[in-house]
């Protein structure tokens, strides 16, 4: 499972879930998560290593999201409340179940939601919201008025420039029809754990959940209230095919930007570590 986990986590991070936010933003995200629809999404990010873009198909139903790359690959990543599944050519090749802990609402949410007017998006009435960290705009959301689905997310860097755009280029509000897939009897269960070597706070991000698999390896999920990342441990060194290697203070780490996310990996004495997020 560990060798596939990096690709699986990518699916988990495309749409934040289980994050404690301010009331308005929490309601917007919850309504979007509960809707059913199909869409094509264009992702384009201006990263330090150049522009990264992709066109993906996604389908959502009852809180579960299925992602399909617009390429010749037939591998599909499914994520939703409670776990994920990797399927290739109609067969489950890996999966995991997560038993998480409830996250309590933050007393003072970091981000504030500002209404920014009405919009017409893909021929549908919508509303625009700006997410602010103090005076700094960090994201702009366009929300379909009839269904509550977030159809466009634009995130900004610390200087106010556009960093990443995730926009629907097609949208079908009907409930998608999915084939029945039998669960994998050998799937691993990750159980919420109170014992972990991962810190509770990391660079302004709070550890919301931490899990441990049957080999005792850590998996942690962090958020600052909107942006998020996962950190996990592997019993083998994690190699990025297209990553750039950096050397700092006698150690090394690799970094790779892909559309909508960044991955960092580094070796440890008994394997490897990885951080994957929408940073």
Biggest sheet layout:
20 strands, mixed
Low-confidence stretches: 1-23, 72-88, 90-104
* Spatial shape: globular
Question: CATH homologous superfamily of the largest domain - what is it?
Answer: Lipoprotein localisation LolA/LolB/LppX
Distance between the termini: 25 Å
- Please state the CA-atom Rg, rounded to the nearest Å: 19 Å
Q: Say what the CATH topology of the largest domain is.
A: outer membrane lipoprotein receptor (LolB), chain A
**Structural classification:** mainly beta
Pattern of helices and strands: HHEEEEEEEEEEEEEEEEEEEE
Write the layout of secondary structure elements.
Elements: H1 2-13, H2 23-34, E1 37-47, E2 50-61, E3 64-69, E4 75-80, E5 83-88, E6 91-99, E7 112-121, E8 124-133, E9 136-144, E10 150-156, E11 162-172, E12 188-192, E13 201-202, E14 205-212, E15 218-223, E16 228-234, E17 244-248, E18 251-258, E19 261-268, E20 271-277
Parallel strand pairs: 6-12
Antiparallel strand pairs: 1-2, 1-11, 2-3, 3-4, 4-5, 5-6, 7-8, 8-9, 9-10, 10-11, 12-14, 13-14, 14-15, 15-16, 16-20, 17-18, 18-19, 19-20
Task: Characterize this entry briefly.
With 279 residues, this protein is mostly beta strands. Helices cover 9% and strands 55% of the residues.
